Amino acid sequence: MRNLLWITGRLPHPLRSGDALYTAGLLRAAHAANFAVTVIGLPRSPNPNLNELDSVAPVDWRPVNAEPNSAIGSLVSALPKDAYTLYPARFHLELSEALARPWDWIVFDHARSGGALKLARRHSGKIAYVAHNVERNVRREVAMGVSGKMFRPHYVIDALKYGRLETKIVDAADAVLCITEDDAEVFRRRGATAFHVPPVYLGEKLRTRTVSAETPRRVLLLGSFDWVAKQNNLLRFLDLAGTRLIAAGIGIDIVGSIPERLKASLEATYPAVKFWGAVEDFREIAKDVRGGLIPEELGGGMKMKTLDYIFMRLPVFSLRSGAAGLPADVVSKGFASTTLAELASDILAGIDNVDDLDSRQNQAFDACEKRFSVEETASTLETVFSAENERSRRV
After folding, report:
1. Are 188 and 297 part of one and the same domain?
2. Whether 244 and 134 share a structural domain
3. At what angle do helices 228-237 and 135-145 cross, to 10 degrees?
4. For 125-138, how does the pLDDT look when each residue is reduced to its tens digit (9 = 90+)?
5. Rounded distance, CA 387 to CA 110, Å?
6. Is the peptide bond between 14 and the residue preceding it cis, with omega within 30 degrees of 0?
7. Which domain, by its residues, includes 292?
8. Phi/psi of residue 341, each to 5°?
């Protein structure tokens, strides 16, 4: 049995964001592959319930009950803000104690866990890096998308720090795990031993559903809108596409956590849009819509909500960038648009062709049913963490 120490800035609970869902799926797959996994990280909420963590994955959880560092300190740190705040002294101490044990692999889950890289490199275990996206590219895009001259420099500097930290982690890694094949190819060009490790779908699969003329003319956008990049995506969608949909009488349901001030502002600006906030179960909302939306222009990796849509039997209206990570035969079953304007046009043209929508959702479900499973990802992890996988040195 191979022993894995899994370092993550934030423990994957609750499962309300794409990064938490991807991590949770990998941990379940690692357990299924018969690896002994210990996970250490800061909880996303105070006083974590170990029973709730066990429901995410049956691994050895080591929550670090400490307050994050103040973000102000990151201004004088070489680490980007997230990596700095999520590596307080208590985390360093408890990780040092964990590293006193022998480990076959030390896994850095997301670049924001990279504050511990220097400490981990003193250990004899191999290093793996779980890249949720290509941070160098994504953070630069986010910085360029921030409005206001006062705030943009902070994001530009943070993007540069993320790029440097990502390079250090990749250089140190014996294996890089990527959520899409496109991301894996980027890291391979940098000299890394990179693997495409698809996510695991953790939700329920709706065995049957029909999109018909009785289905309300509404569309659903799932997401977590706490990060500035996600907020910018949402604002651009509502401005460039949402207004056209509303004018045509198409309802929009937006489900996911969102800062209260932003939510109140958007509700006042777009009274026809329903903002549900974070909900425990979105299935009752999903049954009364004709399609799911992927309108993100910024942010990399695979959009985990795509799988929610497909397995809830919703036809997918997406930007091409939002279809990353999906097999080509699945992408062809949805609507992949180049721009937000084109996305709005595709929705307007297709929303009332219910027979076509119903056919597309059935075909996408059938194409994905045996993919994105614990068993498939466990098999990939067995290859990634095999004894034969040796360090790849960058030239």
Report:
1. no
2. no
3. 60
4. 999 999 999 999 98
5. 23
6. yes
7. 218-368
8. -60, -40
The sign of the torsion formed by the CA atoms of 171, 177, 178, 183 equals positive
| pTM > 0.85 | yes
CATH number at residue 156: 3.40.50.2000
In a domain, 395, yes or no: no
In a domain, 393, yes or no: no
Q: Is 32 left (phi over 0), alpha (psi -120 to 50) or beta?
A: alpha
Q: What is the DSSP string of 285-327?
A: HHTT-SEEEE---S--S--THHHHHHHTT--EEEEGGGGTTS-
pLDDT for position 288: 96
At residue 395, what is the residue type?
V
> Do 30 and 45 form a contact (C-beta atoms < 8 A)?
no
Query: 267: Cβ–Cβ under 8 A, 6 or more apart, which residues?
Result: 273, 275
Please state, in angstroms and rounded to a whole number, the distance separating the CA atoms of residues 291 and 360.
10
Q: What average pLDDT does the chain have?
A: 92
Nearest CA to 111 out of 10, 18, 188 is that of 10
Joined together, the tokens standing for residue 361 give 């959702």
The answer to whether 340 and 293 are in contact (CB under 8 A) is: no
Residues 60 and 183 in one domain: yes
- Both 25 and 153 in one domain: the answer is yes
Q: What is the largest CA-CA distance in the chain?
A: 63
Q: Which amino acid is at 189?
A: R
Rounded distance between C-alpha atoms, residue 282 and residue 309, angstroms: 11
1 has pLDDT over 70: yes
